[in-house]
Amino acid sequence: MTELKTGALGNGRLSLDRRTFVKGATAAAAGTLVPGSVLADDTLNILVWCDHADQKLIGPFEDAHNVTVNVKTYEGTGTALSILEQSAPGDWDVIVIDAPDVPQVAGLGILDELPDDLAPWDDIFPTLRNAPYTRVDGKVYAVPEKFGYYGFCYNRDVVDAADVRRGDIAWNDAYSGRIGVYDYYFPVLQMIGLSMGLKPADITVDHLGDIRERLLAMKPNVKMIGDIVSVQNALVTKSVDVVVGGAEFTVSNLMASNPHLDWTISDDGGLIWNQGIGILSDSNRKELAALFLQWILSPEGQGLLATSECFWAMPANSKAVISDAEKATLRWDEQDDLLARSETSLLPDPEIDVEMLDIWTEFLQS
Amino acid sequence: MRPGGGSLVRWAVYPALVYSLVFFAMPFLVMVAVSFWQRLRGRLEATWTLANYEKLVSKDYLLEALVNSVEVTVLTTAVSVLIAYPLAYVLAYRVSARWQKILLVGAIIPFWTAYVVRAYAWLIVLSENGIVNAGLLSLGIIDLPLDLAYTRGATVLGFVHFFTMLLTLTIFASLIQIPEHYRMAASDLGASPIRVFLVITLPLSLPGVAVGAFLTFVITIGDYITPQILGGNTEVLIPQAIMLQIARAANFPMASVMSVSLMLVILAVYLASARYLRMDRI
User: Whole-angstrom Cα distance, residue A233 to residue B57?
Assistant: First the structure.
């Protein structure tokens, strides 16, 4: 997911220089992020995406263990690392991050190695279970908990689904002025790469010229570019008919009240995003944190997480308790096919990342 | 009591002075220093180079972002002044004291709503199935919805809605400080109402206009939310370019260069309008 995903900071590029800089610049704020009252032994402090903030998800755990869960939501792994830098060791117990970031973040030494039997691995979708970032040197630091796609969402009352699946709808003049774009640079550039036959891992600096041309050629048809809330608003108010880069996380929680909305991935394939949950190595409540992870990864927890108020997406656990209607919205029965046709969105290396952001800025301005 | 007139006054100034030094001057100097650094291979390195400045002036889309910011800001300020001045004039001279209070409260109502909420409210009004298009369509004035949302015009409208009220207050404050007998004397000497306005009222109210316009300029040119939501991100203003560098790439040096460029524009505007910026008239 985009706004919830990392920027370049999440590439494990956090240097001592930057740490010093950020600490110096924010010294006055240090220690203020976690009020003393939430440092009690009966409080679990979790640094998570907005989909973990639902009381229907947190409440049963609090009741079962007679504890309080203090939730802080954030967007982007870089933001999470910044919060951790400004906090005292032990302030935070659980973290949710972009799964592809796990190897780099684990390299910073802030994630605890998890026991292999903590997660129901046999029930986790094989694509996630076997993803290269799920284990670092054979060790698990975060367990996949939820995933989805970067694809397309659209107004099916006026858009031909076949046009969307062909993947070139953003360049189709029949939809000029009806296209919205999800404002997250590297997944959209990687989607264009896929349409050119390039997997995310295969994109090099040499490919960026062609990708840039293709991206800029889209702009005349684009009505707006925005974050999740902005593109949702544009779809609901019918200001745009298609959103490039969106998918289930953009429209699933709107579809009941807006039956004209739908999502899909291109026949060229989709891009998979995936979030993981782990325990911070400085946590003083690791047993409680492990219990929380087990709750989130349980069939009941997974069902609630998948259909959170903030955004819906597929649970990592294939045994998630979820209604048939909810499964239909999430394309549950099509997951084998969708996963088989999709590539994982990987964070670009620093050199490509800088170039991609420059191209994106030029796209916005063009 | 005149500024600097006593030790009590001097002491009263120190907290604000210290606050400004710690929370503005020092961070600003740090930002200037960081603008000469570089982010290389994912690390922030104190390289003391002009590379970021070279990038700013060599990339057309970054210069265009700066130009966009100035254009949107000048347009917003001009339109806001043109709407606010007559409103402030009427408030100051043409309504009773009772209505003056009621209307002044009305003027500050937009400040009661959250910035983001206000922007999204405008987006709903301007969208294809929003109130404006629905009204025009139902009246048969248009056949197809107008493209009102996600445009520069929408961004300016969102700004003007807010800053007209700010300007109204600063101009009103300036107008009511003009001694009534100045205008009465001019009238007694045979000046027409228009001449009284041009020779007495307008010149003496310019400090209020200048302060309000300067505040409007400074706040607008640094605003990120309104162009992001109402402009639909279809053109980049400098604050958006800064946010891209910080939020997406953690490239603090490049963001600092853009921020310095923004400060230079503001400084130039300040120098151009300094002679009118008499805060004691507000």
Answer: 36
Do A265 and A277 lie in one domain? The reply is: no
For residue B123, give the amino acid letter: L
H-state helical runs in chain A: 16-25, 55-65, 77-85, 102-107, 126-129, 161-166, 185-195, 208-218, 228-236, 248-251, 286-297, 299-306, 324-329, 335-340, 350-365
Q: Is residue B30 part of a domain?
A: no
Count interface pairs A-B at CB distance under 8 A.
Answer: 115
* Nearest-Cα residue of chain A relative to residue B134: A237
pLDDT band at A52 (very low <50, low <70, confident <90, very high): very high
Domain that holds residue B144: 59-281
Pair of tokens at residue A153:
């969402």
Identify the residue among A98, A221, A361, A363 best suited for mutation to test binding to B, counting B beta carbons within 10 A and taking the highest.
A361
Relative to beta strand A179-182, strand A242-244 is: parallel
In this prediction, residue A81 has a pLDDT band, given cuts at 50, 70 and 90, of confident
CATH number at residue B112: 1.10.3720.10
Instruction: Judge whether B99 lies within some domain.
Output: yes
Residue A339 lies in a domain: no
A38 and A133, same domain (yes or no): yes
CB B27 within 8 A of CB B21: no
Chain A positions in Cβ-Cβ contact with residue B248 (cut-off 8 Å): 7-8, 185, 357, 360
Domain range for A33 is 8-147+273-330
Q: Is the pLDDT of residue B97 over 90?
A: no
Report d(CA A264, CA A25) in Å as an integer. Answer: 44
Given this model, what pLDDT does residue A6 score? 35
Count of structural domains within chain A: 2
Alpha helix ranges (H) inside A237-306: 248-251, 286-297, 299-306
Q: Which H/E stretch holds residue A336?
A: helix A335-340
The arithmetic mean of pLDDT across residues B141-170, rounded, is 92
A265 and A292 share one domain: no
CATH number at residue A291: 3.40.190.10
Phi-psi region of B278 (alpha: psi -120 to 50; beta: other; left: phi over 0): beta
pLDDT at A103 over 70: yes
